[in-house]
Design a protein that fits this description.
The protein has 395 residues and is of the alpha/beta class. It is globular. Helix 2 (57-66) packs antiparallel against helix 3. The strands form two sheets. Strands 1, 2, 5, 6, 7, 8, 9, 10 and 11 form a nine-stranded mixed β-sheet that branches. It has helices spanning 33-43, 57-66, 73-84, 98-101, 110-125, 155-164, 167-171, 201-207, 235-241, 265-277, 281-302, 307-310, 313-322, 350-368, and strands spanning 20-25, 51-55, 132-133, 152-153, 176-183, 189-193, 217-219, 222-226, 247-253, 327-333, 383-386. Strand 7 (217-219) and strand 8 form a beta hairpin.
C-alpha cells in the first residue's frame, strides 16, 4: 500500500532537547489513515516517540506502532490499512485521477456519490479485518449478551490485532503506551497504560468499542466503551501524568474544531460531528498553556522573596508545587476535502484511505519546513503551542 519513506534531512543533526516525545492520537475511524501517514513521515526523522497515547482508532494505530520494532512499524500500519480498505470492489490507487479529484462548477462532485456508496457498503457489509454485521441482528439476541449490545461483531478486529501486534513487545515497556476507554457503569474515563498493567487485545478493543455499533469489552469484570465518548483526545492525560519531565507532544487530531457555517442538513451533521469529536482540543490545550504559564509566574514571584521567607516551609512547598517542566505542543489537524461527508469516519474505500495517508505525510513535511519547534530550548518552564501547517487539503 505504501513504501517506508526516506529519513527527512530537516531534523538530522538537531540535538534532542526534550526528556519525552509523545505521539497523541485522536479517535476518528477511517480518518485514522491520516495518523498512519503522519507516523510514516515522522519515522524518517530523529523524533521517534517514547510514548504513544491514543483513543479509538488512535489506540489501534498506537498499538501497531508500539507493538512492532521500528523497522516494521510502517509495514504493519500499511498492512492494517490495506486490510480494512479492501472490502469495496474499487481498489484504485489513483488518488490524483482528475475523474475523482475535480468537478465542473455547479455539478455535484463525483466523489460525494462514490463516498456515499462506500460508506453504505461499510454499514451494510462491514469492514474486512475489523467488524462484520451481526447475525441474527442485535434486537434478536438474548438481552445482556454482547450480541444484544452492538450492531456488529468485532471478532475480526481481535484476529487482526493478534496477527499484527506483538503484545509482549508492548509489555516490555520499550515505548510507553496509553489507551483511553470509558467505564460503562461509572461513566468515568480510564486509561490503560503499560507502565502499570499488562496490555492485551482487550484493552485496545475497549478503547475502540464505539456504541451502539460495537459492544462493550469486559476487562476484570468491568465493561468499557470507546474513550471518545468522554474525551476523544488523550492530550490532557499525557500532560497530567508526565511528571516533571520536559515534553514534546505531537498532537494528531482527526476532527477540526473550526469550520464553516453549514449551508444544508448534510453540512449540519458533519459540523456537529466535528465539534463533538474534536473534544475541544484547542480549548484544552489553551487551558493547559494558561495553567502552566501561571504556575511559572507564581514560582518566579516566590523566588524573588527574601531568602529568609524562601526558607519558610510553606513557601518552599509552594515553590516546589509550582515547578513545571516545559512542554511544546505541535498540532497536526486533518483538514477535510470539500467533497467529504458526515460519513467520512466510516468510509473505508481504498481511495479515501490513500488520500488520508498522503495528507498526513504532507502535513508533517509542511511542519518540518518550519523549524521553530525543533529549536525550542526545552529549558524554560511553561507550555508553547505550534500549528505550522499552512494550507488545507486540495479540493
Amino acid at each position: 500500500m505504501t513504501t517506508p519513506s526516506k529519513p527527512h534531512s530537516k531534523t538530522r543533526g538537531i540535538e534532542r532537547r526534550h526528556d519525552l516525545i509523545a505521539l497523541v492520537l485522536q479517535g476518528g475511524g477511517a480518518l485514522g489513515a491520516y495518523q498512519a501517514g503522519v507516523y510514516e513521515e515522522l519515522s524518517g526523522t530523529d523524533y521517534q516517540p517514547d510514548w504513544i497515547a491514543g483513543v479509538s482508532i488512535g489506540a489501534i494505530n498506537a498499538a501497531l506502532i508500539a507493538g512492532n520494532p521500528p523497522a516494521a512499524r510502517v509495514e504493519r500500519l500499511s498492512e492494517f490499512w490495506h486490510t480494512v480498505s479492501s472490502g469495496m470492489g474499487l481498489h484504485t490507487d489513483k488518488a490524483a485521477d482528475p475523474l475523482w479529484s475535480t468537478a465542473p462548477a455547479g455539478v455535484p462532485h463525483p466523489r460525494r456519490t462514490f463516498n456515499q456508496f462506500s460508506a453504505l457498503w461499510s454499514a451494510m457489509l462491514g469492514i474486512p479485518g475489523f467488524y462484520q454485521p451481526r447475525v441474527p441482528p442485535a434486537p434478536f439476541q438474548r438481552e445482556g449478551t454482547p450480541g444484544a449490545l452492538g450492531m456488529y461483531d468485532t471478532a475480526p478486529l481481535r484476529a487482526t490485532l493478534e496477527r499484527l501486534i506483538d503484545f509482549d513487545l508492548i509489555n516490555s515497556k520499550k515505548v510507553r503506551l496509553s489507551v483511553g476507554a470509558v467505564n460503562v457503569t461509572s461513566g468515568n474515563s480510564e486509561y490503560f497504560d503499560n507502565t502499570d498493567r499488562l496490555i492485551g487485545p482487550d484493552h485496545i478493543m475497549a478503547s475502540a468499542a464505539l456504541p451502539p455499533a460495537f459492544p462493550p469489552v469486559v476487562i476484570d469484570g468491568q465493561a468499557y466503551w470507546d474513550g471518545g465518548i468522554v474525551s476523544n483526545t488523550p492530550l490532557q492525560y499525557v500532560l497530567d501524568t508526565r511528571g516533571k519531565r520536559s515534553l514534546l507532544a505531537l498532537q494528531v487530531d482527526l476532527f477540526n474544531a473550526r469550520g464553516a457555517l453549514p449551508v444544508n442538513l448534510a453540512d449540519v451533521q458533519q459540523r456537529q460531528k466535528d465539534i463533538i469529536y474534536s473534544s475541544r482540543t484547542r480549548y484544552n490545550s489553551n487551558m493547559a498553556t494558561e495553567v502552566a504559564n501561571a504556575r511559572k509566574a507564581l514560582r518566579d514571584l516566590l523566588l524573588k522573596l527574601p531568602a529568609k521567607l524562601q526558607r519558610d516551609v510553606s513557601v518552599q512547598t509552594l515553590i516546589e508545587a509550582a515547578r513545571t517542566a516545559p512542554a511544546d505542543i505541535v498540532h497536526l489537524i486533518y483538514r477535510q476535502a470539500s467533497y467529504e461527508l458526515e460519513s467520512k469516519d466510516y468510509e473505508f474505500s481504498r481511495l479515501s484511505v490513500l488520500e488520508h495517508w498522503q495528507a498526513g505525510r504532507c502535513d508533517v513535511r509542511d511542519t518540518i519546513e518550519h523549524p521553530e519547534w525543533l529549536k525550542s530550548s526545552g529549558l524554560d518552564e511553561g507550555v508553547t503551542q505550534y500549528d505550522l501547517t499552512r494550507h488545507s487539503r486540495p479540493v
